[in-house]
Amino acid sequence: MSVSPTRDDPVVAGLSEVVGGPTGSRAGHGWRIGALGVLLAVTCLTFALGMVSKTTCAERGWDDPGQTPYTHLCVSQLPAPYTGDGLVELAWPWTGETDTRARYGVLDDPAGVGLWQYAAARVTHVLTGSPDVSERFREPPGVVADRADVGRERSVFVAVNVVGLAVLAMLATAALAAVHRRRPWDAAGFAAAPVLATAGVLAWDLLPVAAAAGALWAWTRGRPVLAGALVGLGAATGLWPVLLLAAFALVAARERRATDALPAAVTGLAVWALVNAPAFLTGRAQWEAYWSATFGRVADQGSIWLVLRQTVGMSDGSVTALSWALVGLWLAAVAALVVAAPRPPRVSQVAFLLVAVPLLFGAAYQPQQALWLLPFAALARPRWRDLLIWQSGELLHFALLWWWLGGLLAPSGGGDAGFYWIGVGLRVAGTLWLVAVVVRDVWWPEHDPVDPDEETPRRRVAVSSVSSASVAGEAEDVRDPRFTGYP
C-alpha cells in the first residue's frame, strides 16, 4: 500500500481540507487512474503553464530585440541555435568548413545537446516542407534570419524542442515515481514544481535531468550497468551528472561494497565517449569549444562571485582559486558525512548534496540550473514546505535576473544594480536551507520522512522449487544482497 501524501505531508494535509481532508483509512478504491497517471497529468499541466508564460515572446516570433522578453519574463534559449548556429542551413554543428565557420559561431553546448538540436532541425525541415537551403548560402546570415519563412521555421523548431522536452519531463516523473515502491507521490515534488514551469523550456537542461532521474531509478533497482549508461548519457548533455556516479560510489563504499560502483563508472565512460564521438571525430577544435567555455568562466550572472566582484572588487584569479577551494572542501565534507552518519544515507540525499556544489560555488548561474537539483530534492526531502522555501528563492532570482539584464534595475544615478544582489542572496539562502535540512536528516535519521527499511532495492529471482510459486512458474521480489542501499 502506497503512502498517501495527504496523511504524510503537513502542507498537503492542510490543503486537502478544501476537498474534505486527508484520505481516510477506510477510503474506497473504486475506479482510479493510479498515482502514475495523476503524476503524468500534473507534469503536463506544469509544463503547459511554463509554455503559457512564454506566449508573448512566441507571438513575436522569438525575435524581439527590445525589453519585452525581460519585462514579460519569457526569455528562452531554444530559438537561438536555429539561426544563430546555422541549423537553418542544416550546418553540422562541429564542421570545420571555412565558409560555415565564417558565417556562424561555434556551438558552445555539450555534444549530446548539439546532436539533439541537429535532430530537431532535421525534423523541423521535414515538417516545413524540406525547404531548399542552398539559396540561403548566398545571403548574409542576418538577412536569412529576417526572412518570413525562416521565422515560421524557427517557431516550428521551438515547438519540436518543447514536445521533446515535455516527453523527457514525463519520463523523469515516471522514473522518480518508481524509485520508492510505497512512495510514488514523492515524485509530485518534481511534477508540480514551480521551477519546472519557469525553467523547463529555458534551455535543454531537461536532457541530463531525465537521464539522471532514470539513473537513480536503475541504481535502486540493482542495475548498475544501466545506471552508469544513463549517467554517461546525461554527462554528454551536461557535465554535472558525473556527480551522481560519486554519490553511487560513496553510498556503496559506506556499505562496504565499493566495487559495485565500478560497472556503473565503466559503462558511464563508454556511453559518454560514444555520444561525443561524432563531434570529436568530425571537428575536434569545435568540440573543444564547450570545454574551454566551461572551465574558462569567470564571475558572471547569478553567482555569489559576481556580487563579491561588484562589492569588494574580487579579481578573477581570486574567484577561481577560492571557488575551487570551496568545492573541494564541500566534497570532502559530504564524504565525511556519509562515513560518519549513524546509518548509510539514501542515494538521493548524497546526490542532492553533491549537485548543490556547482549551484552554490560555480562561476556563473542560470535559472535553468535549478532543474539539476529538482529530481534529487523531490526524493531527498519529500516535504512541500522545504521544497517551496528553496524554490521561492529560485523564483525571485528568476524575475530579478531578467529585469536586471533588461536594465530595469539599474540605479538612476548609475552603478551596479543592488536589487539584483538581493536575488542572488535569496537564491543561495534557499538552496542552503534545503541543504541544511537534508544534512539534518542524514545526521539525525529520525527526522527523515522516508523509512529506509521499506526502500531497499529488489530484484526478480525464482523462489525455491518446493514453494508454491515455483510450482506455478512465478517469481517474487526479494532483497538483492548486493544492493542494500536505498534511494
UniProtKB/TrEMBL annotation:
- Basic and acidic residues: compositionally biased ranges: 476-487
Q: Which InterPro entries match?
A: GT87, UCP010361
Keyword annotations from UniProtKB, A to Z: Cell membrane, Membrane, Transferase, Transmembrane, Transmembrane helix
Q: Could you tell me which residues belong to the region Disordered?
A: 464-487
The UniProt entry, under Pfam families, shows:
GT87
Q: Where are the transmembrane segments?
A: 33-52, 156-179, 191-219, 225-252, 264-283, 320-341, 347-366, 387-405, 417-439
Its subcellular locations are: Cell membrane
Q: What membrane topology term does the record carry? A: Multi-pass membrane protein
Similarity comment text for this entry = Belongs to the glycosyltransferase 87 family.
What this protein is called in its record is: Glycosyltransferase 87 family protein
Natural source organism: Nocardioides marinquilinus
Q: What is the lineage of its organism?
A: Bacteria, Bacillati, Actinomycetota, Actinomycetes, Propionibacteriales
